[in-house]
Inverse folding.
């Protein structure tokens, strides 16, 4: 990432943190100045009071000096409190802004992006990487100001006492800085690996948590445990290596600074013996030298933390720089007839899923799509909703090319029951009301009645307030589908799409739902996708899709007699359906 890109992002995330940063800067300046006065008092006490011919009054009243030191210490304590408190506020606000941006952005990223990126990795970037950056802002960025003040004040004091000794003290600094720089590179490289390993680990955990049924059903526990172990091992090894590196860095760093301190003490003592500095100055000088060495060492830590943060920043920025769904559109269709004209589409370049598909749906009519699995039926729906962008051919609604229609319009005017309906871990009522948060309980129940699920919901001990487990695992497949239908009906959209929405309910319930829906769909343009001919046969037009091509189009009456594939499927399914209809399903409200 270019540095101006980083600055722009930092600027964006810093919104609302300015006042905290200002307080932190002032507090750290005050604290540094107060702190730097304490060695001065010691030096004055040794040279100006305790020494031969020192201030007689003060010698009698040493407590005055003690009070001075206490006042300075309390003032320093208060500044440090303000410093820490506001550092936390700045860091948390910064992290909150960052999480907000990420979440909003992820919401707007295209489906294609989501199918190309792993959930665990996305979560890792939105949590652990944000945490690394927050930590850096809280502990390091503001620390820099403190360090700059400390170094400046210490150097001013030291130079004012003895130039030669100060130069000796400074001679070590390049060694420490170069040494830190080398480690900076090393840590950055290893942190990238460790962070990626963490992302992979969370992907495995997340997949297993959501796919627990499949894992159990196929007895794949051991396989998954082994897979986890392998990732876990790698993860642990990476962090141990990082820990070893940091340990080494600090240990060697301590030795280097130890040498520096010893050097200064020896040199200082020699200077004191020669009479170039007083005993008091020597004590104060040694104290300033420690204050100088410590921040220089911290600079090393800041560099190594910066390398980790740089990695996290890149990872967060990867999400933020991914193109959102384009929304440069403003046309509002006035009618709801749908046209597919020569639509050719593939999820990737190599394989075309739809080939030259054309069909027309009149407003207020019902259109049925029949086709084998993988023939491209759901793909038609994805394209209509602009979940994926079309490149060849056109799709129009009310005469308007959907590329000129905003996604928001499409998604509020096209009600969808997706093939694998997703329910949130909320109550059934909230799940149904997801499309219309203002709906009354009556409206919610009415939708549920049409979807033939009201009675079953009422039979649950908590009725509509029943919590749905994660992804709806506490409901049966058929119940989930019907909750999804109710949710879609509540949106009262003029275009309705049922993608295999009744596949998990028996033929009897299927028929009842269709009967109940008929009244509701009078004016709506409807697309029904199914493998089951009975579900489709009442449609005004039916299309048979095979391998992405339109094989036949017509009404049920036409298609069931033309000797084509539809007729064949119809005959096979009718013998099956006769058997199905012998089965008496439970009654449900209509
Ligand atoms: P089914 O009756 O099983 O639901 P379908 O007719 O709805 O089948 P589609 O879901 O449209 O079939 O899929 C058509 C083809 O597109 C399949 O071969 C599938 O592998 C492929 N496909 C579907 N979604 C994606 C995707 N996100 N990325 C890549 N290929 C995909
Ligand atoms: Mg499908």
């Amino acid at each position: 990432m270019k540095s101006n890109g980083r600055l722009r992002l930092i600027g964006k995330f810093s919104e609302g943190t300015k006042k905290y940063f200002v307080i932190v800067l002032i507090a750290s300046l005050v604290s540094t100045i107060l702190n730097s006065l304490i060695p001065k008092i010691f030096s004055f006490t040794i040279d100006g009071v305790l020494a031969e011919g020192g201030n007689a009054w003060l010698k009698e009243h040493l407590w005055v000096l003690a009070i001075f030191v206490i006042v300075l210490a309390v003032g320093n304590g208060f500044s440090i409190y303000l410093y820490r408190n506001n550092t936390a506020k700045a860091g948390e606000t910064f992290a909150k802004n960052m999480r907000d941006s990420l979440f909003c952005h992820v919401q707007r990223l295209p489906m294609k992006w989501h199918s190309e990126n792993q959930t665990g990795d996305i979560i890792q970037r939105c949590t652990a990487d944000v945490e690394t950056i927050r930590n850096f802002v809280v502990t390091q960025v503001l620390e820099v100001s403190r360090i700059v003040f400390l170094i400046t004040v210490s150097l001013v004091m030291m130079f004012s006492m003895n130039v030669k000794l100060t130069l000796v003290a400074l001679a070590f600094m390049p060694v420490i800085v170069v040494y830190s720089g080398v480690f900076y590179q090393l840590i950055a490289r290893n942190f990238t690996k460790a962070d990626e390993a963490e992302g992979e680990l969370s992907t495995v955990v997340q997949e297993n948590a959501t796919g627990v049924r499949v894992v159990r059903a196929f007895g794949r526990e051991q396989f998954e445990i082994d897979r986890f172990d392998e990732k876990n091992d790698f993860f642990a090894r990476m962090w141990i290596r990082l820990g070893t590196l940091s340990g080494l860095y600090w240990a060697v760093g301590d030795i280097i600074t130890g040498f520096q301190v010893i050097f200064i003490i020896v040199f200082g003592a020699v200077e004191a013996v020669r009479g170039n500095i007083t005993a008091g100055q020597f004590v104060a000088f040694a104290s300033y030298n420690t204050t100088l060495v410590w921040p220089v060492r911290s600079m090393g830590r800041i560099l190594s933390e910066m390398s980790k943060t740089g990695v996290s920043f890149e990872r967060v920025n990867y999400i933020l720089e991914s193109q959102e769904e384009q929304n440069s559109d403003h046309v509002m269709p006035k009618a709801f007839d749908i046209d597919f004209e020569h639509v050719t589409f593939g999820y990737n370049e190599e394989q075309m899923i739809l080939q030259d598909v054309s069909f027309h749906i009149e407003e207020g009519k019902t259109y049925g799509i029949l086709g084998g699995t993988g023939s491209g039926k759901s793909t038609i729906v994805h394209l209509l909703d602009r979940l994926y962008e079309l490149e060849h051919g056109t799709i129009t609604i009310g005469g308007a090319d959907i590329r000129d229609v905003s996604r928001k319009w499409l998604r509020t005017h096209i009600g969808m029951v997706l093939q694998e309906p997703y329910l949130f871990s909320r109550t059934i009522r909230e799940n149904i009301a997801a499309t219309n948060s203002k709906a009354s309980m009556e409206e919610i129940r009415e939708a549920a009645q049409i979807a033939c699920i009201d009675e079953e919901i009422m039979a649950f001990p908590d009725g509509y307030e029943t919590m749905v487990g994660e992804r709806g695992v506490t409901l049966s497949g058929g119940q989930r589908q019907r909750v999804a239908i109710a949710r879609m009906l509540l949106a009262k959209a003029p275009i309705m799409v049922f993608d295999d929405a009744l596949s998990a309910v028996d033929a009897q319930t299927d028929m009842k739902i269709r009967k109940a829906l008929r009244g509701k769909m009078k004016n709506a343009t409807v697309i029904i996708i199914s493998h089951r001919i009975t579900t489709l046969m009442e449609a005004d037009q039916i299309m048979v899709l095979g391998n992405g091509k339109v094989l036949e189009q017509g009404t049920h009456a036409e298609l069931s007699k033309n000797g084509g594939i539809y007729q064949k499927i119809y005959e096979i399914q009718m013998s099956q359906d006769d058997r199905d209809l012998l089965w008496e399903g439970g009654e449900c409200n209509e």
In short: Strands lie at 338-345, 354-361, 366-371, 392-397, 400-401, 414-417, 495-499, 525-530, 541-546, 549-554.
